[in-house]
Amino acid sequence: MQVAFLYALLATAATAANIGSQDALLRLYGGPGHLWASVVFGTAVGLILKYVLDKRYIFRFRARNAAHDGRTFVLYAAMGLVTTAIFWGFEFVFHAWFDGSRSMRYLGGAIGLALGYVAKYQLDKRYVFTGAAA
Q1: How many CA atoms does the CB half-sphere of 53 hold within 13 Å?
Q2: Is the pTM here over 0.85, yes or no?
Q3: How far apart are the first and last CA of the chain?
Q4: Contact by Cβ (8 Å): 124, 79
Q5: pLDDT band for position 132 (50/70/90)?
Q6: Distance between CA atoms of residues 129 and 54, nearest Å
Q7: How far is residue 73's CA from residue 76's CA, in Å, rounded to a whole number?
């Protein structure tokens, strides 16, 4: 139960970083592709933060060297492809349903991230951080 609470707390932090980064980019850039740019940027920020937090606090993972850490990150990111599709799907569906409302798009993104993180934990535990404490 302790791991579930901590994971939820860290997922909330990564969600805030993701959505906050999206919003910051949209405030700075309004040109062509601004919506996609913000979503990709927020996803990258959230991914990196979540990897650092997960490997240290959830899985207590210690890479043998930089190359091992890099390979682990690539695998972590690959496991996130399906969950990213869930997240982006919710975000863009809410954007469409609510006539481009930024706050409703962010709500959809947050819901998509929450659902995706449930699946991501299982994928990471089974395939990424194997042998790590969890």
Answers
A1: 19
A2: yes
A3: 11
A4: yes
A5: low
A6: 10
A7: 5
